[in-house]
Amino acid sequence: MDIRLYLTPLPFERADVNDKTVVVIDVLRSSTSICASLKAGARGVIPTAGPGEAAEMRSKIGPDTTLLAGERDGVKIENFNLGNSPLEFVEDAVRGKYIIITTTNGTAIFSKAGKARLVLSCGLVNVSLTARRAADENRDVMIVCAGEKGGFSIEDTLCGGMLIHLLNTVHKKEVTLSDAGSLALLLYRANKTAIRQSIAQGEHGRYLTSIGFKKDVEFATEVDALPVLPVLKDGRLILESDADITK
User: 3-state SS string over 66-84?
Assistant: First the structure.
């Protein structure tokens, strides 16, 4: 299994995703919020690149069945129903709705990734289930770290490294890694007993804590806390149940 990890989204834009499994990682926080939404009963999550596109999508689908969610620089977008805190996406708020989401770093990646054979949204909260699904698919894997404003982020790279570790050790895949993938794996193995601390002390973890989202950082670093599998189908992330991937 060839695994290429992208530390930031920019080089992924030029990648050939044909016949690949693509895993999009944005631990803080869109991947975590997507999992929380689907776990709470949302019909689907529609990732968009910006607020304008999100509003257009809501007009197309209809306001009665949709909610707008998103942030810029960590703060909820004005006139949106929800921000990007996974703690907001509870059953009373989202059940039966389509969540149209736009975030600073993570959601725009899906427009490129959507051309792949299989596209998964992964955070630490669902990393083991993601690894299992990618292993079952048994295709070459591209792991895209959302990063932070076009730059490196420790949380996404750690999660990518953990995903590689699980594919190699739990699912017994012989993996060939890009240099960035090797770096991510080394980073994970050096910090696997201190994942939460490493992320909380990272640049984006510190920033979110400073603007009042310390609990989000804590929640997003609970490994396998939300064992659901968001799969991109026709531009929408929907729930693929555990029964669907059991062989």
Answer: EEEEEEECCEECCCCCECC
Nearest-angstrom CA–CA distance, 232 and 44: 9
Q: End-to-end alpha-carbon separation of the chain, Å?
A: 19
Other beta carbons within 10 Å of 230: 29
pLDDT tens across 45-97, in order?
A: 999 999 999 999 999 999 999 999 999 999 999 999 999 999 999 999 999 99
Residue 46's DSSP bridge partners are 100
Measured distance CA(162)–CA(54) in Å, rounded: 32
Q: Which structural domains are found in the chain, ordered by start? A: 2-239 (3.90.1560.10)
240 pLDDT band, cuts 50/70/90, is confident
Radius of gyration of the chain, Cα coordinates, nearest whole angstrom = 16
pLDDT at residue 246 greater than cutoff 60: no
Closest CA to 35 of 96, 131, 109, 120: 120
- At how many degrees (to 10) do helices 203-210 and 154-169 cross? 130
- Please state, in angstroms and as integers, the Cα–Cα distance from residue 92 to each residue in 32, 37, 171, following that order: 18, 11, 37
On whether the CB atoms of residues 25 and 156 are closer than 8 A, the answer is yes
- What pTM was computed for the model? 0.95
Question: What residues form DSSP beta bridges with 120?
Answer: 23, 231
